[in-house]
Amino acid sequence: MAIARATQQQTAKQLTWNSARSWQAAAQGWGLRLVLATLAMLPSAVANARPETIPTPGIPNGTYIYGSVEQPDEIGQEYFVFEARNNYLLGTFYYPRSEFSCFYGRVGTRQLSLTVIDPYSNESHPYAIAFAPVALAAGEDAAAIGLEGYHRLSSLSVNDRRMLDTCIGEHQQDVWQKTIVKHI
User: What is the pTM of this model?
Assistant: First the structure.
């Protein structure tokens, strides 16, 4: 009798284990089918993607100021002012009542690609700022460019202009002269 009961318990355990294993195998089979179906659709989705859906932003020629906050001249906040000409940039990063660093660069397809000049060592360092979506209200500038982590400000102060003019004076031959040669 004890042998019969042990055999019965062993058979029950085996059935339970086999049922669980069958369920697990079925679930894995469905998961695999879902992954394969998704992969089968990818090539057609990639083939149907149109390059014109990725905008290539440009920045109209002019002078711009952006800040890490929406108010100008806040102590401890970063700002940058630049002049744009034919998608080449020349400007300055600064903190109010502190030093400033000149930069130059180019407008890329997804970011501003910049070279920042250390004000003490004169060494150059690469830096990039990604574009960010801009929500425009009625009557706002349709050419507005959003920059990740920065807000566009409306006007330059006398000090903003002074720092920008200093950087233009020091680096215009590296930036504007090269752009003139490239466009001829």
Answer: 0.64
